[in-house]
Amino acid sequence: EVQLVQSGAEVKKPGESLKISCKGSGYSFTTYWIAWVRQMPGKGLEWMGIIYPGDSDSRYNPSFQGQVSISADKSINTAYLQWSSLKASDTAVYYCSRLRSIPTRPDYDYWGQGTLVTVSS
Amino acid sequence: QSALTQPASVSGSPGQSITISCTGTSSDVGGYNFVSWYQQHPGKAPKLMIYDVSNRPSGVSNRFSGSKSGNTASLTISGLQAEDEADYYCSSFTSSSTYVIFGGGTKLTVL
């Protein structure tokens, strides 16, 4: 069974750093792209970027470039989303998802359960 | 890049059919047959319902269908059921540097 299991909810202060994770199982982790998607409270979905765990090739939405970093450790089937300095506006639920085909096709067939990140002083 | 345009809400009675539209441009919806639709229940992760405009993943009911005309894609749900009440999002490849763009979402209410 394909599963993406994300790390738990986080409460952080502005300026702090954070790294959340997404562990894949039940499939060949290195041969499918993983995307990160943001959902701010009461709002819609926003595509942040993707990574190919096989070679760590990554692409970013320009709106998020420089604000976050996407990485992967294929030895432990885990993808990461990282901030070096959080802002209150980063408060959101973050989902990882598996891309069933190629980056030009937005067909994400499996999703993690979401990680709620709350940034507040 | 602005989100794809969806109606904020639609509603229908059990057994009826509804259609949700998703309007973009020739740089996204109109230019490529790479449109997907997602269903999201409150507090849950999105679920892929349609990909490549009109294809259903295994396990998705055939009550869900997708189509496209010009710059507008559509999701039709026939034989509405109570469990269809959810938010629905379209997404498309875009030739801009963002790769993927989502619609603003549509809340479906089953009356």
What do you see in this structure?
The complex is a heterodimer of chains A (121) and B (111). Helices cover 0% and strands 50% of the residues of chain A. With 121 residues, chain A is mainly β. The radius of gyration of chain A is 14 Å and the shape is globular. Chain B has strands spanning 9-12, 18-23, 35-40, 47-50, 64-69, 72-77, 86-93, 100-102, 106-110. In chain B, a hairpin with a 6-residue loop joins strand 7 (86-93) and strand 8 (100-102). In chain B, strands 1, 3, 4, 7, 8 and 9 form a 6-stranded mixed sheet that branches. In chain B, strands 2-6-5 form a 3-stranded antiparallel sheet, with no helix packed on it. Chain B is mainly β and 111 residues long. In chain B, 0% of the residues lie in helices and 43% in strands. In chain B, 40% of the residues are buried. Chains A and B meet through strand 5 and strand 10 of A and strand 3, strand 7 and strand 8 of B.
Layout of strands and helices, then pairs:
The complex is a heterodimer of chains A (121) and B (111).
Chain A: E1 3-6, E2 10-12, E3 18-25, E4 34-39, E5 45-52, E6 57-60, E7 69-73, E8 78-83, E9 92-99, E10 108-111, E11 115-119
Parallel strand pairs in A: 2-11
Antiparallel strand pairs in A: 1-3, 3-8, 4-5, 4-9, 5-6, 7-8, 9-10, 9-11
Chain B: E1 9-12, E2 18-23, E3 35-40, E4 47-50, E5 64-69, E6 72-77, E7 86-93, E8 100-102, E9 106-110
Parallel strand pairs in B: 1-9
Antiparallel strand pairs in B: 2-6, 3-4, 3-7, 5-6, 7-8, 7-9
